[in-house]
Amino acid sequence: MANIMNTNKENRPLNDPTFLASIVRSPDEGPNYQPNWRWLTVQKYLAEIESSAESSADRSKKLELILDREKEEVVRQTLQFHCGVLGDGEAPVKYALLCAQDATTAGAIMAMVVAKASIERIAIEMGTQPGKIEFFEKLYFDVRPYLGNRFLLRKICFGNGGHRWLKVAFLRGWAGVEEIVLQRLPNGPRNLSHTVSVLLGRAQAHQFELEASNAPESEKDLQLLLSVSQANAKFPFLQDTIEENPVPETEASKGVAELTPVGRERVAAFLRMILDEAKKKERAARAQSERNAAHSESGIETELPPQSGA
């Protein structure tokens, strides 16, 4: 995971004057797009400042010149933070940098992005604010605009700097993230279903890796196919039915989750009462409509004539 955030594919020194020009800022510019291009740009600027400045005044002047020509806001804020001149608004930058130092945290956020979770949902899972998650994404893992570009996303998730969680998210979406990354399993008796699910996912990924490596066909493929077909009937039924594009939790849903069991039951009873009343009204309206239709077909007036002498 460190590779995907902190290195460049060309392995050129960051103070190489041609390096900045080689940083691809969007897939449209070239096939060697790296989602951490903003962080690579910051590193290049920092190396440029340190190599050409002999005093604090020189470094400040160099920073001003860089900020004059660099318009990308996340790059500007991160560079200013490292130079100690950002001031207010440093919390998202600091959060992103700390997450990058924790491979598990960074991997979890990236996997949820690949699984198309919203920024708000990721913030809930990580226990932070959406703005901080958004800053991390833009600085280290700028793939949200390209989630529909399947081949590009595959290159990123299965590349040398990729993490197993990224592969899970790519192949199985949010269902895989729920099971593997968040380990959110349903309550109930223990069984082999989830163990088999994990192993099947790893076996599937292995087969995709073989195909991608252009491995030639062999008799071993037939032997594996025979073994799998014989064992398939013994596997428990597994299907990813978890919602692919999770909806962020609302204040109302979080409020219900914080209630005691008795409180939740009272809310449920109140909702059942409202639903039952609505169903009664719907049935009454339907019955009245059917009676009106029957009266109309038989020629019977549905409204009583006015009484004489009223």
Shape: extended
Low-confidence parts, pLDDT < 50 over ≥5 residues?
A: 301-305
Major β-sheet profile: none
Report the helical percentage. 55-70%
Distance between the termini: 89 Å
Count of helical stretches:
15
Radius of gyration: 30 Å
Task: Give the overall pLDDT as a whole number.
Answer: 80
Tell me the layout of helices and strands.
Blueprint: H1 2-6, H2 19-22, H3 37-52, H4 56-69, H5 73-82, H6 91-100, H7 103-114, H8 119-126, H9 130-140, H10 150-158, H11 164-181, H12 193-212, H13 219-232, H14 251-257, H15 261-298
Describe the overall structure.
The structure is a single chain. With 310 residues, the protein is an all-alpha fold. Helix content is 63%, strand content 0%. Among the domains are: 148 residues, no CATH class; 36 residues. Helix 3 crosses helix 5. The protein is extended and about 100 Å long. The chain starts with a helix and ends in a 12-residue tail after the last helix.
